[in-house]
């Protein structure tokens, strides 16, 4: 039994129009983000500062993301995305003014990162939950491949463009470009309708948005994961992965500037290879469609992450190209792993539950990331960034071996469990809609 509404044969036109606008906005945000990270690196040279910025990005998604998911399943997702994109643009406009008046402080970046992340928590869940309502089920894996290709292209384009703009434009102008590109995301949202999942309007009218009703919806998202053993164990393993791997991105600027004694251009090269890997992985996933037994990608992917972490740990003693190769491996594995998991969940989770489930997953898998960031900054400042990359490789290797001995994870998506998947799915929705 399909969980989707009936779709027009011309589904690709509205979906990819919306998708393309989001892509241009994402490019502007990535370029602005690169500029902000490099400004912090030049001004402070501190791994703690960069880790704290990353922490400000994660906290709203961890603490408030599940509430965003509960509201997304009640509200019109098109307007959720429109408000989220507009909020992010306003945050960039504020940074542009602060740069222009030469009054920017580090805490300003922390604050706007927090606001942008909160808006992003709404936007990510709304877009992912809307995709399954706009794209045929048999095309979801390929669309996720396209999403990973997009992430790769953005990662390829943003660092060199960011490095170039940092050299030729004031930071205020770079923030202003982010505001302009946000318009390409906002305008299509004003023109294109996004279907609402069956029952969401009725739930909004009957239950309202009272605190008790929202809290009940939040709990239903976590309960959904709890009652699906394979997904629960996958979430716990991803929590460990994110705890050690999240700081890697925050430490890259320090690795480049301190261990390689290089600059923004070299950081751009490393991030470019990450994007090239993501692009290659996205193309592969889009053409191939993944393993028939999709969850086989999990242990293979984590082994790949472990190998890449070890390579980066030794790269300062070898050459910059070793770090670039490792980041390319990270990118390929990331596209295959994330794209496969997202397509699997979009196909198996009922549309009216997806906002709650996706944000609960995002919150659950990221819950330990702040602890990793709090540890990584001081460790990198004392023993060097490569020490954290080496420790991450050890932990990821242990996780990959563990996955090989957990059938519930290796069979994720193949089991049909009462109350969670398939024809009995509406029973879960009705139980949580009162």
Describe the structure.
- With 434 residues, this protein is an all-alpha fold.
- The chain has a single domain, classed as MFS general substrate transporter like domains (Growth Hormone, Chain: A, Up-down Bundle).
- It has 18 helices and no strands.
- Helix 10 runs parallel beside helix 15 and helix 12 (297-318) runs antiparallel to helix 13 (320-348).
- The longest helix is centred in the first third of the chain and has 33 residues, at 12-44.
- The protein is globular and about 55 Å long.
- 54% of the residues are buried.
Features:
disordered C terminus; 18 helices; mainly alpha; Growth Hormone, Chain: A; 434 residues
Write a short abstract of this structure.
The protein is an all-alpha fold and 434 residues long.
Question: What is the percent of helical residues?
Answer: over 70%
Content-based structural category: mainly alpha
Distance between the termini: 24 Å
- Total domains, how many? 1
- For the record, the CATH architecture stands as Up-down Bundle
Shape: globular
What low-confidence regions span 5 or more consecutive residues with pLDDT below 50?
201-208, 417-434
Residue share in β-strands: under 5%
- Give the CATH H-level superfamily: MFS general substrate transporter like domains
CATH-defined fold name: Growth Hormone, Chain: A
Radius of gyration: 21 Å
Order of helices and strands: HHHHHHHHHHHHHHHHHH
Oligomer: single chain
Tell me the major beta sheet: none
Mean pLDDT: 79
* Beta-strand segment tally: 0
